[in-house]
Amino acid sequence: MRRDNYKEVKKVLWVILFANLIVAFLKVIVGFFINSASIIADGFHSVSDASSNVVGLVGVRLASKPVDKKHPYGHYKFEIITGMFIGVMLLFMGIKIVFNAINRFINPVDLTITNESLIVLLITLIINIFVSTYEYKKGKKLNSYILISDSLHTRSDIFVSIGVIIALVCIKVGFPMIIDPVVSIGVSICIFHSAYEIFKSSIEVLVDSAVIDVDTIREILKNEEDIKDIHNVRSRGSENNIYLDMHVMVDPFITVDVAHDLTHRVENLLRENINKNTQVIIHIEPFYGK
C-alpha cells in the first residue's frame, strides 16, 4: 500500500474510534442504568471495537514505514500482526462475557427497562450501521486489509445490537428474565466468531497462502499472443500487498528486447486487473512445443 493511502487509513480509523467510543459509552451507561447484562456485554464489545481502532492506528503506523535494508519487502505484515492482536483481545472479551452470563444464570437480576433506554440503543444501532458501511467502503477504496476486516467485525455488532433490543422488548412484554443472559451468550458467540475470522485471514497471510487463482492469471493474459504458456505461478501476501511470480514461456528465437517489452506488458496487465501495488517477477523460458 502507498504511504498516502496509509494516511487516509489513519484518518478513517480516527473517525471510527470516536464513533465507537460514543456507542460504547451510551450502551454501558444504559446497561448499568437498567441493570442489563446483555447491554453491558454489548457495550464492552463496542469498547473492544474502539480498542481495536487504537491498535489499528499503531499497526498502520508501523506498516507504513518505508522499505529498508533489513525489510526489503516493507513492513506491511505489521498490519496483519495487528489484526491477530485484535483477535486475541476479542477472545478474552468473549470469555469474560460468558462468565458474567453464567453468573446471571445462577443469580438472576430484575431489569428496569424504559422506552428511553430502547431509544438510545436504536440510536447506537444506527451509528454502528453508518460506521460499518463507511469503513467498508473506505477499505475497498483504499484497499486496506485492516479497514475491511474491522468493518466486518463492526458489522457483527449490528446483529448483536438487534438481538439485544429484541431481548429487552421480549422482557418488557412479559418474557422471563433468563432471556438476558441467554442473549449475553449469543453476544459472546458473535465475538468468538469475529476472533476466528480475524485469526483465519491473518494466518493465511503469514503462512503465505495463495492470494490469486492460477486460472485468473491465465484469463488476464489470454490475449497476449507472444505468450505460449505459463507455469509455476505463485502468489502471496494480502489484498493490498500482493507478490506474484511466474514462468512465462515464449518463442525461443525472439530477441531480448521483445522479451523485455513482453515482461512490462504482462506486469502492467496484472497490476491493472488485480492491484496497482502488485509486485511481479517474471522468469522467461523458451517454448519448444509439446
TrEMBL record:
The chain crosses the membrane at residues 12-34, 76-98, 118-136, 157-175. Its main location: membrane. It holds the Pfam family ZT_dimer. InterPro entries: Cation_efflux, Cation_efflux_CTD, Cation_efflux_CTD_sf, Cation_efflux_TM, Cation_efflux_TMD_sf, CDF_Transporter. It is a multi-pass membrane protein. Residues 213-287 form the Cation efflux protein cytoplasmic domain. It comes from the Bacteria. Keywords: Membrane, Transmembrane, Transmembrane helix, Transport. Residues 13-207 form the Cation efflux protein transmembrane domain. It is found in: Membrane. Belongs to the cation diffusion facilitator (CDF) transporter (TC 2.A.4) family. This is Cation transporter. It comes from Paeniclostridium hominis.
